[in-house]
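Case study 2.
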Amino acid sequence: MWRAANDLAPVPAELARPYTSSGARGLLKVGFGLDPGDERYEALRLQFLDFYAREFASIPGCSTAWPNCSISSTGTDLPWGAW
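Prediction:
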């Protein structure tokens, strides 16, 4: 749906899956061919984070589980999420 908002066809799941653990950075790479520093990168990164927050919150149970995930990772040195 995010690529559709940018008038692009979806990326097949099997192609996108290896990039998903890299969050917005990985998905911008596979979906748009962008790297940090590219002209459109920051605007699309913010667009992705907004889209992610809206879509994630619409999944039953996820919006109530999210604070627990956030709290449990606080204070660790584990990078995670869509940043």
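The mean pLDDT is 76.
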